[in-house]
Design a protein that fits this description.
The protein has 4 helices and 16 strands. It is mainly beta.
């Protein structure tokens, strides 16, 4: 490392190529303009660079600030060790690079860029993590894109609304039809049924008592809403379509159901409220694992 003029910010030992011997994995900062966070693997006398491919991403490296956010483990269940590096660039955007030994080099499996953050999470309960990329939030609600390893690449799985800040209670946002729709399903996911009921219109609340309405969610474990779009909107009302994934405990089995929904919302003095919905079930499957 000294002969290369590299002063590591951090070092870690791990058998990254599964040959039975430990390699050194490290990160360092190159003093360019802007600075470049770069990585390496030192295997005996062999040096392997960890860096983006040539092109637009090459100038910023793995980030533009000194950092030691580094993991070495099998994150996607493919039996190999991945080297995971988080970085950050000047636009307050998080970067995530994933490398893995392919027999001759440490190949780049994926680059992810999240203005609202990038994280790994096991959302299916199996042996693999998904990559969650967030856009910048609006009033505490963020848009999140989920990617999963399909055996050859990280592929899009789903996109959805989520809370940007994890702590509760959350402030439900009803300043627009889309925000009101997002808040309704996020309240259901939080198991805040009174909060979700409060986002229904006065007519919808009058049609069914709270107790009768709430019993319909007695088996619900989680709810996610994605693919929203405003179908039509005029003064005082709007129609919004979306897809909803509901996870339920059905006699001890965890079942996910995908719905196509279209809500009519009305603008009230208290904010936008969900008035009536048309629901079409698209698919249903059992989850073998649940986190």
């Amino acid at each position: 490392m000294g002969t290369r003029g590299v002063a590591p910010l951090c070092l870690r030992q791990h058998d990254t190529d599964l040959d039975g011997e430990l390699e050194w994995v490290g990160l360092y900062l190159r003093s360019t303009e802007p600075p470049q966070l770069l990585g390496f693997v030192l295997d005996g006398n062999a040096w392997y660079d960890l860096c983006p491919p040539a092109g637009e991403d090459e100038a910023r490296g793995l980030g533009a600030y000194p950092a030691c956010e580094l993991e070495t483990r099998d994150i996607n269940g493919d039996g190999r060790i991945e080297i995971v590096v988080w970085g950050r660039v000047e636009t307050n955007t998080d970067l995530l690079h994933i490398f893995s030994w392919d027999g001759t080099r440490y190949a780049l499996l994926g680059i992810f860029e999240g203005p609202g953050g990038v994280r790994l999470a096991n959302e299916t309960g199996d042996t693999s993590d998904q990559v969650l990329v967030r856009l910048r939030p609006e009033n505490g609600i963020a848009w999140e894109i989920v990617y999963a390893w399909d055996g050859t690449d990280y592929a899009w799985v789903w996109d959805r609304y989520t809370w940007f800040y994890p702590y509760r209670p959350h402030a439900y946002v009803d300043d627009s039809p889309l925000h009101a729709l997002a808040s309704f399903y996020l309240a259901l996911a939080d198991r805040d049924l009174p909060g979700a009921f409060g986002l229904l219109s006065p007519a919808a609340q009058a049609a069914r008592s709270y107790d009768d309405w709430a019993v319909g969610f007695s088996t619900t474990l989680d709810v996610e809403v994605g693919a929203p779009r405003v179908v039509s909107q005029e003064e005082g009302w709007a129609r919004v379509a979306a897809q909803v994934q509901a996870v339920d405990n059905v006699n001890g089995r965890v079942v996910t159901t995908l719905y196509d929904v279209e809500w009519q919302l009305i603008d009230t003095e208290a904010g936008w409220r969900l008035d009536s919905a048309a629901v079409d079930m698209l698919d249903q499957w059992e989850m073998p694992y649940y986190p």
